[in-house]
Design goal:
- It is a single chain.
- This protein is of the alpha+beta class and 420 residues long.
- The chain has 4 domains: 34-46 and 316-345 and 361-417, conserved putative lor/sdh protein from methanococcus maripaludis s2 fold (Beta Barrel), CATH 2.40.420.20; 51-60 and 224-312, Beta Barrel (Elongation Factor Tu (Ef-tu), domain 3), CATH 2.40.30.170; 68-93 and 187-222, Beta Barrel (OB fold (Dihydrolipoamide Acetyltransferase, E2P)); 95-186.
- The protein is 37% helix and 35% strand.
- The strands form 4 sheets. A 6-stranded antiparallel barrel has the order 2-11-15-13-12-16. Strands 3-10-8-5 form a 4-stranded antiparallel beta sheet, with no helix packed on it. It has a 4-stranded antiparallel beta sheet with strand order 7-6-4-9, with no helix packed on it.
- Strand 17 and strand 18 form a beta hairpin.
């Protein structure tokens, strides 16, 4: 009996000790296994939306200078990077054959003109003979017969026709001389514009052959020290924003590898409607004009471009990481668990949902895109997560504008679960 009492007392003592240790241990275990969240702060400030693209820097205008005539190059007066003025002589082609052609056509023209004078003299003589014959016939019809009179008349007409042919031959000779003179002038290659020689494609002694196409000799860039063009290819999905940015005169910023850390600025000058399709991706050329007084931007450089398409000032900004966060249901308070099903994104294996999306009408797709602006972000409330409904607007790479919602600057939003 005493032994049983002793055992009972021992059990009660051990139970009291266990009960005393359970609650601290349980509290420690709960606190130790409590989820830790990565948080991001709601801010207030400006949001600048940009469309990024790559492009190539080109001169505003580049003139390709070629040769209309063939022959050996006898003189080259410019080299790469030389500045030239309009009518400056860049190169010369051997003119010997063309000078000979000019002399030949000058001699031919002189011959044709002499022929005109000869025919005029014969015509004058024939007209005088015809006038004298008519006078004699009027004095006495027996002096000149009808046959003889016809000979005088038709001799005059024949010489008038010969004079017309001779004068036409003179015009032809003049045209030939003008042609050969022009070809002689073409042996002197002059710059048609002021600019900088950015390419030279000939060497001294090289022979040009221009029978089938005009050979390119020089490329002269115009106003390269004043401004340059940046040609960008922009995806069709962004063209609406780009067109709006052009209308509003939004600034364009870009960088080049040659000048790391320096940001260049420009304006959208032209949006071209000639699309390009590459692997089913449609892009449009957008031309940006930028000043180049320091000649830092050279033709062919690759530019990393950011088109500023819209901006908001002094708005509440929600971190994009918080908008992307999707919690596990076990961490969410009971009142918000029903939201998880509505926000769950179907996987690629959900063929029924994909099929439904493919048959949506244009109005339904537009409505779905508008509803995508309605989001939920999550805040920590005790040991659970609470959903806050927001409607977002403009976004940049870090934040999105809050159009409506119950959030304030400084409030912490969950972005992900910390891994232990």
């Amino acid at each position: 009996m005493k032994l049983l009492l002793k055992l009972l007392i021992a059990v009660l003592i051990l139970g009291s000790i266990g009960a005393g240790l359970y609650y601290p241990a349980h509290s420690y275990w709960v606190e130790h296994n409590k989820p830790e969240w990565m948080l991001a702060e709601v801010e207030k400030g400006d949001i600048i939306a940009e469309v990024n693209s790559t492009g190539e820097i080109k001169p505003v205008k580049s003139v390709q200078i070629g040769s209309f005539v063939s022959g050996p190059i006898t003189e080259i007066n410019v080299d790469f990077n030389d500045r030239v003025k309009e009518k400056d002589i860049l190169a010369k082609i051997d003119p010997k054959l063309f000078e000979a052609n000019v002399r030949r056509d000058e001699a031919l023209l002189a011959t044709r003109r002499a022929e005109v004078e000869r025919v005029k003299a014969l015509l004058k003589q024939a007209e005088n003979d015809e006038r004298r014959a008519r006078t004699l016939q009027q004095e006495n019809p027996d002096y000149i017969s009808g046959t003889e009179m016809d000979q005088y008349i038709y001799a005059t007409l024949s010489l008038k026709a010969q004079l017309t042919v001779a004068e036409a031959s003179v015009d032809q000779a003049i045209a030939n001389l003008e042609n050969s003179s022009a070809n002689l002038e073409y042996t002197v290659i002059a710059s048609p514009v002021d600019g900088i020689v950015i390419d030279r494609k000939i060497d001294m002694g090289q022979t040009l052959a221009s029978q089938f196409q005009t050979p390119e000799m020089f490329v002269v860039a115009v106003d390269m020290d004043k401004k340059m063009h940046v040609f960008a290819s922009v995806d069709e999905a962004d063209m609406g924003m780009i067109m709006k940015a052009k209308e509003e005169g939004q600034r364009v910023e870009f960088t080049v590898d040659a000048w790391r850390g320096e940001v260049f600025t420009g304006q959208i000058e032209q949006i071209r409607v000639s699309s390009t399709i590459t692997q089913n991706v449609v892009t449009y050329p957008v031309v940006v004009v930028t000043p180049n007084p320091d000649m830092k931007l050279l033709p062919g450089m690759t530019a990393e471009i950011s088109f500023r398409v819209d901006e908001r000032h002094d708005v509440i900004k929600i971190p994009n990481a918080a908008l992307r966060f999707f919690p596990d249901a076990k961490y969410v308070r009971n009142e918000d668990k029903k939201l998880l099903e509505g926000e769950e994104v179907p996987t690629t294996e959900d063929e029924d949902d994909n099929a439904t999306e493919q048959v949506l009408s244009a109005a339904e797709r537009a409505d779905a895109e508008r509803r995508e602006k309605q989001k939920h972000v999550w805040i920590v409330e005790g040991n659970s997560l609470k959903a806050v409904k927001v409607v977002v607007g403009l976004s940049d790479n870090k934040f999105s504008e809050m159009v409506s919602g119950d959030l304030k600057p400084g409030q912490k939003l969950v972005t992900r679960l910390k891994t232990k």
